[in-house]
Amino acid sequence: MSEKVLMKGNEAIAEAAILAGCRHYFGYPITPQTEVAAYMSKKMPKIGGTFLQAESEIAAINMVYGVASTGKRAMTSSSSPGISLKTEGISYLAGADLPALIVNVQRGGPGLGGIQPSQSDYFLATRGPGHGDFHVLVFAPSSVQEMADLTSKAFELAEKYRMPAMLLADGTMGQMMEPVVLPEPIEKVEEKPWAVTGTKGEREHNIINSLYLKPAELEQTNLDRFARYKIIEETECMWEEFMMEDAEVCVVSTGITARVSRNAIVEARKQGIKVGMIRPITLWPFPKKPLIEAADKVKSFIAVELNMGQMKEDIELAIRCKKPVALCSRVGGMIPSPDEVLEAIKKEV
Amino acid sequence: MVVFEKPKALTDAVLHYCPGCTHGIVHRLVAEAIDELGIEGKTIGVAPVGCSVMAYDYFACDMIEASHGRAPAVATGVKRALPDNIVFAYQGDGDLASIGLCETVSTAARGENVTIIFINNAIYGMTGGQMAPTSLIGQVTQTSPYGRDPKTQGYPINICELLATLDAPYYLERVTVNNVQHVRQAKKAIKKAFQNQVEGKGYSLIEVVSACPTNWGMTPQKALDWIETDMLPRYPLGVYRDKDAEAKKED
Asked: In chain A, which residue's Cα lies nearest the Cα of B58?
């Protein structure tokens, strides 16, 4: 599987999920992620898998919950308004410590919003998408290659830590085509001792559950979960640095805006401006370490994002407001041009 | 000599149900069916939100607790992942006929090969007696203190009749457990609903008209009588779909 193929981002997610051993996909049509469902509907019946167009986003996430309870890899995909509906199920997945993959190819909001790209579900994803105290792993791909690679990674870490994972792409990532080297297929997904598969009369019954009526017990499940989160925050942060060695201004951006920013930075460097970029790849856990280290070197930060400054708040928290953080953003489906980002960079010099 | 035993498919946990509640009877009937079919080791149950939320502690098979109304979707996921296992959902009227009606209808329309046990006691029990989608016209509950008024609160939903408009369901029967004869009929229906799944025949739902003496504000005996006098006229017992019987007729 080492040769390059030309694929749409949404298709790369679907194929990578199958290669990662996912044989159960449940979805509901919504733009701009429908290609994931279309791809799965073609492919799954041919490989003995399940493609099911659910009656609602809520049903889809609960079907995922059912499969996840059996220890098998399951996923659903949607776009922003659909993710709002799935948050109930995501909370239950988190509460029952079940791994699963939720893909959110974001569009503009709030409400019905639009169908053009957005990163405005940043808070929804990173603060725990649903009621209760919890997190999901959040990955922000910036290329079709990463759409594939992070799909595999999301399944792997979701299982390792028994928690849901979200691939948080913007609409551009879902729709654009690029060459991609698909990951190696996973032959067998590990059996889970906690899964419900039938006792076969050989063990006590397993129970998948998130209800604890005794406050002390419920508190303990929260404490245990957050102990796991601490390990994740210490060990699983992913990011990429670009031209940061001598940078005086640090751009922070993900997804499509990271690519726009990269062009702007190359142009700025030509004009002698010392600017670099830290691109978070995991949004939860948020890569605080490189940012706090950068805070000692740079004069200022610029958050470049497709929302009103949601990630900007995480940057400020990460660097404890040691340096100013400017915002360069477009919303509603608008995307800043490299020139707009360049202008924002020049303001900081 | 032991003449009456607890079914093996029930655990030793003490049921939390109120005196006179018929959940206990139905739990027992489900467990007896599982025992008699010898399927406990491969059965996976899905508990709802409502009074039977803790059914996962009472059935000895593997169990999943679902969110409110979503048990049929969860059961669908489990059955698709493990088609050789037996999957049942146990749901009340608020869960199945109100918040989860979409999942109920869609799962039935797909003809998922699962078994649904539907407890219809015309009230929300766990939250303290609010109006249910199946509450009777004029029924006084905490949220219909002047009696259910169809002008503002609509009419009860008859689930068996509703699902019988669909092509896919294999077996739909409404039973009750308010006397010995009815309990025996309920047992027969529940067992058949599991047997159908074992044979891969498709979707079966058994609606059990049940008593909630606590929230109806009645003694257990009065509640059983009220089933007969008030519930059954609105919810007639009987088979609403049986593809076995239909096939026999054609022969």
From this structure: A205
Q: Does domain A4-198+224-235 have CATH number 3.90.1170.40?
A: no
Q: What's the CATH architecture for A240-348?
A: 3-Layer(aba) Sandwich (3.40)
State ipTM: 0.97
Q: How far is CA A269 from CA A328, A342, B230, in A?
A: 18, 10, 82
Instruction: Report the chain A residue with the minimal C-alpha distance to residue B42.
Output: A198
In whole angstroms, what is the distance from residue A271 CA to residue A269 CA?
5
The full set of domain ranges for chain A reads 4-198+224-235, 240-348
In a domain, B18, yes or no: no
Q: Which helix (H) or strand (E) holds B185?
A: helix B180-198
Distance from CA of A54 to the nearest CA of B (A): 8
Percentages helix, strand, coil for chain B, rounded to the nearest 5?
A: 45, 20, 40
Cα(A204)–Cα(A13) distance, integer angstroms: 38
Beta carbons of B93 and B120 less than 8 angstroms apart: yes
Question: Mind listing the pLDDT tens digit for each residue in B107-155?
Answer: 999 999 999 999 999 999 999 999 999 999 999 999 999 999 999 999 9
**Do B28 and B11 form a contact (C-beta atoms < 8 A)?**
no
A71: left (phi over 0), alpha (psi -120 to 50) or beta: left
CB atoms within 10 A of CB B68: 18
Strand intervals (E) in A198-299: 207-208, 239-242, 249-253, 275-280, 282-284
Read off the pLDDT of residues A139-168 as tens digits, 9 standing for 90 and up.
Answer: 999 999 999 999 999 999 999 999 999 999
Euclidean distance between CA atoms A145 and A122, whole angstroms: 21
Contact A129, A87 (CB under 8 A): yes
* B24/B175 Cα distance (integer angstroms): 15
Contact of A37 with A64, CB cutoff 8 Å:
no
Q: Chain B neighbours among A 190-209 (CB < 8 Å)?
A: 196-202, 205-209
| Element housing B23 (H / E) | helix B23-37
CATH number of the structural domain spanning residue B38? 3.40.50.970
